[in-house]
């Protein structure tokens, strides 16, 4: 089922929660709505479910306008943050509930329950009550119940927010696997960037009720459309500069070269560069050459003082700076040993291919 939003707006009095939203969610996608709290993503989900009335615009399922279709008639399955399971019913009875309301035959109910308990791996728990299950198992029951009705579209509203870190990782894999098995068009709301990047076939970034960018996870991470997106999807360093022309930018860390400019910029324009911490090359060995150009000259090399180092086992996070206000984050991966200590001068460089250049965006807040 393909879902299309055409110019959708939702207002509550003078407050606009969703503004002129146009978006296509492809058939069979696991599509994420990602953004900070209050950006309008849950309101967008509720509009899709028919739980809220549009102020303007329309919503289509394939080519059918469902804007005025009741929620119960849209064929929507929905999983909430709190699971909303019947505590006095077994797993099987919870899954059966929606099917019996649809007055399906006993054999059809039995077949569907068997199917969903199978691909959610809940057969061993079929006779248990929700109170006898772990949080992850309860989440799977809620998912099985929503999918048993064979919805046109499955909606997930921050379904993993109540789970601990280990269970969240496990459920990411479960939901991805189930989606691959069923192919149901799924819209997933979250503020967790890692969930979206690791699971989504497509991700839409929302800010202040508007879609800022929709793309694949990899494109969003490496080719963000704005400084806000660059900073919201993972971590990044945003560096002010002046464009000199010929893919060169003057920054507080010296003159930097880029492989791509991406927009029409004129010499003298104020710009913002983005570089991911993992793209900052930290030269631990004094003999290691800096990144060089095709002519063999150093490119994008600089030195900063190590202000703080955080060791996390597989990674280390470095916070670098100078005596002015310049700060830069860098990451090291799987380094068994090094000599770095706070206040050391650190040699660094950045590959031209790792830099993205934008028009300056002075307000990088959530917009809510």
Strands, helices and their partners?
Layout: E1 3-12, E2 15-25, E3 30-34, H1 41-49, E4 56-61, E5 64-65, E6 76-79, H2 91-101, H3 106-119, H4 135-148, E7 153-157, H5 165-182, E8 185-190, H6 193-199, E9 202-207, E10 210-215, H7 217-222, H8 227-232, E11 237-245, E12 248-251, E13 254-257, E14 270-275, E15 280-282, E16 301-311, E17 315-321, E18 327-333, E19 345-350, E20 356-358
Parallel strand pairs: 3-8, 3-9, 6-7, 7-8
Antiparallel strand pairs: 1-2, 1-4, 4-5, 9-10, 11-12, 11-14, 12-13, 14-20, 15-19, 16-17, 16-19, 17-18
Summarize the structure.
The protein is about 25% helix and about 35% strand.
Q: Please work out how many helical segments DSSP would assign.
A: 8
Task: State the order of secondary-structure elements, H for helix, E for strand.
Answer: EEEHEEEHHHEHEHEEHHEEEEEEEEEE
Whole-Å distance between the termini? 32 Å
Biggest sheet details: 6 strands, mixed
Strand order of the largest sheet: 6-7-8-3-9-10
Write down the overall mean pLDDT: 91
Under CATH at level 1, the class of the largest domain stands as Alpha Beta
Low-confidence stretches: 293-297
Label the structural class: alpha+beta
Strand content: 25-35%
The tally of strands reads 20
Instruction: From the 3D structure, determine the CATH topology of the largest domain.
Output: Rossmann fold
CATH homologous superfamily annotation of the largest domain:
P-loop containing nucleotide triphosphate hydrolases
Architecture of the largest domain, according to CATH?
A: 3-Layer(aba) Sandwich
Helix percentage range: 10-25%
